[in-house]
Amino acid sequence: MDPQSIATTSLSLVQLCNKTRNSLNSLTVKNVAPLIAALAREIASLSQVLNSIYESFNIHSLADAALGSQYGNEHWRNVQQAMEDCRETLKTLEWRLEEVEDSQKGLFAFMKNADNLHSTESSFIELQIGTYREAMQLSLQLMIL
Length: 145
Prior knowledge:
6 helices
């Protein structure tokens, strides 16, 4: 397992998190829903954890220790797969947000689509993002110990 690969994946996810959070924040400015604001906060927290992983894997002694055993390698391979799954979730959310933005042919159409996004889908995505964040955070804590 290559430490640079994990660092690069983390950094690209930080960038995707920031893009998605900015899209969500543009909805919250329009007073769409508190659930959307909560989702934006969860993505911001995920971004912070991913940035910490990126920074940690750029410290050679930490990266070497994390990947220094067969179990460490296997663990971080699984984490990297989780990062790829997380990327797909964020891309799906970003696609949905673009769909909402594209449908702004009037305030009513925008509010209808935004309401559709904030209901069950928003809660489910928030749960997914929170789960990714918690898993990455645990992995980061294991690395630092």
